[in-house]
Amino acid sequence: MELPLDYMGFIYYSKSARFVGDDFDADILKSIPSDIRKVGVFVNESVEKILLLAEKYRLDVIQLHGDETPNVCKTIKDSGLEVFKAFQLNESFQFEQLESYHKKCDYFLFDTKSESYGGSGKKFNWQILEKYKGETAFFLSGGIGIDDVEAVKEFQHPKLIGVDVNSGFEESPAVKKVGLVKEFVKSVREKKMSDNKYAVNDRGYYGQFGGAYIPELMRANVDELRENYLKILSSEQFQKDYARLLDNYVGRPTPLTKVENLSKRFGTNIYLKREDLNHTGAHKINNTIGQILLAKHLGKKRIIAETGAGQHGVATATVCALFGLECVVHMGALDVERQAPNVARMQMLGATVIPATSGNQTLKDATNEAIRDWIANPHSFYLIGSVVGPHPYPDMVSRLQSIISEEIKEQLVKEQDKQNPDCVIACVGGGSNAAGAFYHFLDEKEVNLVAVEASGMGVDSGETAATITIGDVGFIHGSKTLLMQDDDGQIIEPYSISAGLDYPGVGPLHAHLAESGRAQFLSVTDQEALDAAMVLAKTEGIIPALESAHALAALEKMKFTKDDVVVLNLSGRGDKDMETYMNNL
């Protein structure tokens, strides 16, 4: 129970060597941490008895290992329980039989064919799973042991959601070799972040947040992307092209710079992850390079984007110029005025910039117009700039931005002889730079993750963009998340001096991190951000973007020890904000 497991199984099948027994004490399960889901394993048991035992033992999941019909699965699922259906595979297995179970189960579990209903302790040929083209995600099972770590890490399938380990780690039936389990879990999780509890599930949810709440006219485009993005992103050709462009076009890896003067000021060890040194001046290019390659794979010729501060618009216009594709960027009319240099850059790169004149004429309204454009022009590709929107966009953008935390881990080994910092700080509007900076640390509980919102004139001023602090659960731009809204559910217009942070919602990943307590959320006012920008400029010779200045301002609100290692993601440079700085300083 002390290990970072997602599920623990209890077998209620009397013929199993691991049968819990008829007098199993229900109080035993009360000691299991709430973040580990309790699975009851049954074989050809009546629905009535399954539901009775599920209530008695407060089970979260029912795993069915017998000949249960789709209707049995549906009945149990409709009762509010999660359902795993196990199937035994060999070379002659007919995957077509699984179609009738689709949507009646949450996950499948693929085990080795044996003469009995219990596990055989033997592996099957995993290559059989190349034939599986279904939509239901699955767990891989069947005799997996400590010697299979590398094979599990290398095995690729877009619907693989987890690994079931049992007999391969036992001294005797039901008695685990805990040390081996610990070693296996640690080794596999280092490679596959997508297996942890902060990752999106196959339906596009982080906890209760996410999903795809979209008009029917968008469904075909979103489904096309959902069905193909993981396959394309994991393909050898994509990986080769993406790595090449990040290296010799974007200019990665970006430096991890220890800022000595700032470190002395706060009495600790502060490093800046220098995303401001990317081509185009911000982290946004990591995402646009990846999505433009994906668009090319899908045969798209016209690219739509939304932008607030203009950095995503510039990054989109840049990659469209590189690949010779038409580029249309929607930008709030107010942002067009206050980010004039970026508008000029987009136009020089060949993009058409269309001002959004509805609402308060900022990022929310630009996103509305981009969605309308996509509905009117379904042959286009919508290149979303943050971890917002309908699934699969939040997950896709997070994966493409994860290069940030991947590099941090590698660079810290050289700097501090360890992979993990004590703290990672990043600003959050929609949240893509924070998602990238947090990604490979989400399952490392010792790393404090700090997300910084823009509170504008103050959280309670009515002029704020502090979504997590004052927001409620709602729906925006195709996703269930936290957003600022009134008692009638109408969106409250956000405000921030930073064009990239005045969004009334937040990406569903961040909503989940806030609700689960995995990340700490702070808020910073306009003035605090301006002051922090001046400190960095005058002590380190670096002028940050106003968005990044919010993250810097959080340092004043935190306590550190002299041995702490703090990494702050400097998401962009301040060239675009010089007029705002001049008008306010």
UniProtKB/TrEMBL annotation:
Reaction(s) catalysed by this chain's protein: (1S,2R)-1-C-(indol-3-yl)glycerol 3-phosphate + L-serine = D-glyceraldehyde 3-phosphate + L-tryptophan + H2O; N-(5-phospho-beta-D-ribosyl)anthranilate = 1-(2-carboxyphenylamino)-1-deoxy-D-ribulose 5-phosphate
Pfam family, one: PRAI
Protein name: Multifunctional fusion protein
NCBIfam families: trpB (TIGR00263)
Its biological purpose: The beta subunit is responsible for the synthesis of L-tryptophan from indole and L-serine.
Entry's Gene Ontology molecular function annotations: tryptophan synthase activity
Quaternary data: Tetramer of two alpha and two beta chains.
Enzyme Commission code: 5.3.1.24, 4.2.1.20
Membrane as UniProt keyword: no
Residue ranges of domain Tryptophan synthase beta chain-like PALP in the record: 251-572
Stretches assigned to the N-(5'phosphoribosyl) anthranilate isomerase (PRAI) domain: 3-186
Pathway assigned to this chain's UniProt record: Amino-acid biosynthesis; L-tryptophan biosynthesis; L-tryptophan from chorismate: step 3/5; Amino-acid biosynthesis; L-tryptophan biosynthesis; L-tryptophan from chorismate: step 5/5
SUPFAM superfamilies named in the record: Ribulose-phoshate binding barrel, Tryptophan synthase beta subunit-like PLP-dependent enzymes
Keyword line: Amino-acid biosynthesis, Aromatic amino acid biosynthesis, Isomerase, Lyase, Pyridoxal phosphate, Tryptophan biosynthesis
UniProt signal peptide: none
Family: Belongs to the TrpB family. Belongs to the TrpF family.
Modified residues (N6-(pyridoxal phosphate)lysine): K284
